[in-house]
Every structure is written in structure tokens, then in C-alpha cells.
Amino acid sequence: MRRFGCVALVLMPVAALVAIWFFVRAESSTESSPLRVVAPEDSSEPDLARGRLPEPPDPQLLAAALALLGPGDRKAACGPYALYTDVDEPRLLTACTLLASQLDAVYKARYGVEPRGEPMEAIVLFATIDSYRSFARETGVSLGYAGYAIAARGLAVFYHGDQPFQTFLTTLAHELTHLLNRRALGVNLPPWLAEGLADGIGDTASEVGFQPLRGVEGSAPQAKRLRDAYEGHRVGSLEPLVARSRREFDRDVVSFDYEQSALLVRFLLDEPELAAGFKTFLKRLAGGETSASPEDLVASLGVGWDDVDRRFAAWVRASS
User: Fold this and answer.
1) Nearest CA to 96 among 160, 161, 181?
2) 78, 130, 131, 191: which could form a disulfide with 249 (CB 3.0–4.6 Å)?
3) CB atoms within 10 A of CB 30
4) Strand extents, DSSP E, 230-273
């Protein structure tokens, strides 16, 4: 039978073979899958780093969230963002509006890149962690520990619970910055840059607005952990970090990827000789004039990786 099958296949017209190949390909590509987002960026987009216009909230996700919020008028405002919540805490909602209203201007001033358009995304704020987790189970969306931005679906989701007030503000600003990253720099940003830029905004959030970015202020625990790692020779070069994809990021049993990312952005902005080159890199990235590769980053900085590693390690030790 096998030999007969092979002979028949050989004798089959080329056109028929091509048709069968396309049929198999089509069948394999139509497998159903749940609605699942595994990163704040669009995994289906090519590596084009250009600011995108904001996305309105995904109707399916928003409907699922509203069902968990319960009956009644749950819509409010958090600055320019629509806010859907069952939290009734005026102090928190006032701070949310203040930070969200300042965010675009702070992003432009801090990073030298202006987000495209006006915010159209929505914020969902659950009062309890149970509702927050139920939303993840019912939609298949992968959520972070206390909040998550789904930029391609126009939504940022949080819970209040019993978190410290400052922790919530930091998380809020961090995740909203992921929405701005898409609007300013495009999709598929390398994770070190996406997370570092988000920390560079989120860690400076306060009830009275955003504080200036000064050294490691607001990131002292990360700085201490990274300093100890450098002292113990347990952390590697920054070049592999900059090259890592989202699937490779923070995957080691003991990882310093988040600490290095948060502090690398701060270091590049804090060092006068490197700040101009880093902002030029971000502007060129936003315009699609460069890639986010390690080679293009150091080309914009005008230094080599050995020099960056040495200066960064010294900066961490001196700042923490």
C-alpha cells in the first residue's frame, strides 16, 4: 500500500499536489484558540517600531469586565480615559485623574517622543482580586500580578483590593505607559525597553503628580538587588538583555532582567554623555528609521557594550 501510494503521488499532476499542499496549510491554520494576550504588544505584527493610533476597548473584553462589575452605572473617568469600576474611593479616583491627565506630557518631556493621537483606551478597575482573577479565567487573557495593559485591545485592567495606595499608583502609571509605548514607539518593542520606559514613569508616580526622574529614587529595592548581584558577579552583560525577545525575557531561575531594564533606562537618561544619544535612538525608533537591535542602540549612544557595561555597573554601585 505504501509503495502504491508513492507511485500514485508521483504520477499525480503537479497542480493537484499544489492544491493539496494549500489545503493542508489552510486546515492547520484554522484551529480555534481562546482569546489570549501574552504580552502588551502585538505578537502578529512585523518588527516595525512606529507609533500607532490608540485602539478603542475591545467589545468582548469590555463586556466581560462589565458583567463582573455588576449592575448600575459603573462608568466614570480617569483623566482622558474612560474608567469602569466598582471602587468607590474619591481619593484614589482623584489621583487616577491627575496622573492620567499628565501622562502624555510627562512621557514626551522625559523620553523626547510624542504619543500619537489622543487616548481612546479604557481602564477597568475591579474592587477585589477575585473579580480580577475571574476576568482572566473567563476571557483567557493573561494578567499581571496587580495590573496589565492590553494595548492592542485598548484596555488596562487593575484591581484595588488591600494594596497600599502608593503601590496602586505605581502600577497604574506603569501599565498606562505601556499604552503610550504603543502610541509613541509602535509594537513589538523589546521587553527591556518596554518595561524600562514603563518603570521610568511608574516609579515616579505620586498622589500629587509625577516626580522628576532622579537616579534610582523610587527604584531603591531593584537597585539594591542589582548592586548585590554585581558585587557577587551574578549578573551578565547588558547586550544579551537588549537582544532578548518577550519569550526569552525573565526566564532564568534567578533573573535580573527587570532590574537591569528599569535601571538601564534611568542610567541612559541620567548620564549626560549618553542621554542625547538615547533620546535620538527613541526618536529614530518612533519614525521607523532604526531597529531596536543592540547594534543600533550602541551606534546611537556612540559607545561600545564593554563601555556601557562598565559605566552602568559603576552607576548602580554608586547610586544604590
Assistant:
1) 160
2) 191
3) 7
4) none
The Cα–Cα gap between 304 and 320 comes to 24
Compute the distance between CA of residue 251 and CA of residue 239 in angstroms, rounded to an integer: 16
Q: Tell me, rounded to whole angstroms, the distance of Cα 44 from its chain centroid.
A: 15
In the chain, the largest separation of any two C-alpha atoms, in whole Å, equals 79
Handedness of CA 296, 300, 302, 307 (dihedral sign): negative
Do 64 and 131 form a contact (C-beta atoms < 8 A)?
Answer: no
List, in order, residues 6 or more apart from 177 with CB less than 8 Å away. Answer: 103, 107, 197, 198, 200, 201, 202
Question: Does 16 or 274 have the greater pLDDT score?
Answer: 274
Residue 43 clears pLDDT 60, i.e. is over it: no
Q: Look at residue 245 and give its three-state secondary structure.
A: coil
Spatial neighbors of 273 by CB under 8 A, at least 6 apart, are none
Render pLDDT for 165-177 as a digit per residue (tens, 0 to 9).
999 999 999 999 9
Q: Spell out a b/e string for 150-178, using b for 16 or more CB atoms within 10 Å of the CB, else e.
A: bbbbbbbbbbbeebeeeebbbbbbbbbbb
The answer to which of 48-57, 62-71, 195-204, 249-258 has the lowest mean pLDDT is 48-57
At what angle are helices 90-111 and 191-202 packed, to 10 degrees?
Answer: 120
The predicted model scores a pTM of: 0.84
| CA dist., res. 114 & res. 185, Å (int) | 9
Can you tell me the distance from the alpha carbon of 103 to that of 83, in angstroms, rounded to the nearest whole number? 16
Joined grid coordinates for residue 17 = 499536489
**Over residues 144-154, mean pLDDT:** 92
